[in-house]
Specification:
Length: about 120
C-alpha cells in the first residue's frame, strides 16, 4: 500500500534534476547513464567496485539477453530511434570500460548472482 505521507515528506528535500549522464560522486565510481528506451527518462546505473570491476544495472534497456543480441525494440518503448541510440551508447560504454552488464529481467543471471548477506567488492 502506498503511504502518501512518506512521499509528501520528501516534497521539500533537495533534488537534482538530471539532463543527460550524471557522475554521482564526481569521481567516476557511480554514474547514472541517460538511456531513453522504455520511457524518455530511462536511466541505467554504472558503478565500479575494487574487486568486481565495473557493473551496469540495465534497468529496462534490455528485457532479455536475446533483446540485446537481436537489438530488438519492444513496441511499447517510447521511441525506436532513441532506443537504438541508447543501445549503441550503452554498448560503447561497456566496451570502453570492460563493464559487466546485468540485465534486470534475466532470470538465469539472477540465479547466479551473489545474494545478501554476501556481497560484491
Amino acid at each position: 500500500m502506498f503511504d502518501e505521507s512518506l512521499h509528501n515528506a520528501l516534497a521539500d528535500a533537495p533534488k537534482t534534476l538530471l539532463d543527460g549522464d550524471h557522475d554521482v560522486f564526481g569521481d567516476g565510481t557511480v554514474l547514472i547513464l541517460s538511456l531513453p528506451v522504455h520511457t524518455p527518462g530511462h536511466q541505467a546505473l554504472a558503478f565500479s567496485l575494487e574487486d568486481t570491476g565495473t557493473v551496469v544495472l540495465s534497468g529496462d534497456q534490455y528485457h532479455f539477453r536475446a533483446s540485446r543480441s537481436l537489438r530488438s525494440v519492444p513496441a511499447f518503448n517510447d521511441s525506436r530511434e532513441a532506443t537504438l541510440a541508447s543501445m549503441a551508447k550503452l554498448e560503447a560504454y561497456l566496451t570502453a570500460t570492460d563493464a559487466t552488464l546485468w540485465i534486470e529481467h534475466d532470470q538465469a543471471l539472477a540465479k547466479r548472482l551473489t545474494l545478501a548477506p554476501a556481497y560484491y567488492e
